[in-house]
Specification:
The chain is of the alpha/beta class and 199 residues long. It is built from five helices and eight strands, in the order E-E-E-H-E-E-H-H-H-E-H-E-E. The strands form two sheets. A five-stranded parallel sheet has the order 5-6-7-3-8, with helices on both faces. The chain has a three-stranded antiparallel sheet with strand order 2-1-4, with helices on one face. A hairpin with a 2-residue loop joins strand 1 and strand 2. Helix 3 packs antiparallel against helix 4. The radius of gyration is 17 Å and the shape is globular. It starts with a strand and ends in an 8-residue tail after the last strand. The relative contact order is 0.23.
Length: 199
């Protein structure tokens, strides 16, 4: 279980997260909802360990830890999808599996872009590449920033199906969004405003 106790974070003496208490069991999906600039990414970065915080504790009591995928590209633009994944797998000290990789390309409907440098992909297909990374690494908790942005209707359906597959495998997802329009997907929804000192 992910357990957050009394988490607080500020920038230049301006509180962003205020005494946050939050927990999430394995096999659950949680949406963090809020406007742009409201602190959603800050919250995810604190969970991931990429950002320090002033007070509180964060514990991932799970065997495979967590994976953070930001709203940035998560890519090396001159590399192909496969080459990029191999670099990221090495960074996370995990093995690359070609069978899993090819299956993920099929599920994401991006096989046709396999040999194209990532810098030439559309924003929607860059998003699909981001989920491809998650499908090829081991983790228990996925922290993913704005996963549904830049996706067309087909892409949204694919992402929803894959998220539910993760859930069926007893993996948990915490994702940020500025639009609360996936009600049937998540088990829990949190307004980032509930975590802020000033509302």
């Amino acid at each position: 279980m992910l357990q957050i106790k009394n988490l607080s974070k500020s920038f230049s003496n301006t509180p962003i997260l205020n005494d946050v208490n939050f927990s999430l069991k394995l096999g659950k999906i949680c949406a963090i909802v809020g406007n742009n600039g409201s602190g959603k990414t800050t919250f995810l970065k604190c969970l991931s360990g990429l950002m320090n915080f002033e007070a509180g504790s964060i514990e991932f009591n799970s065997a495979n830890g967590h994976l953070f995928l930001s709203d940035k590209l998560n890519i090396f633009g001159d590399l192909t999808i496969e080459e990029n994944l191999k670099v990221i797998s090495t960074y996370h000290d995990q093995n690359y599996n070609r069978i899993v990789f090819n299956d993920s390309l099929t599920m994401l409907n991006i096989e046709q872009f396999k040999d194209m440098p990532l810098k030439f992909l559309s924003r929607g297909n860059i998003q699909r590449n981001k989920l491809c990374i998650a499908m090829n690494l081991n983790w228990d908790y996925l922290l993913i920033d704005e996963p549904f942005s830049n996706l067309d209707a087909e892409g949204v359906k694919i992402f929803r199906d894959i998220f539910n597959n993760f859930k069926s495998d007893n993996k948990s997802i915490i994702y940020s969004t500025h639009q609360d329009n996936q009600e049937s997907l998540y088990d829990k929804v949190i307004s980032i405003e509930d975590f802020r000192a000033f509302k």
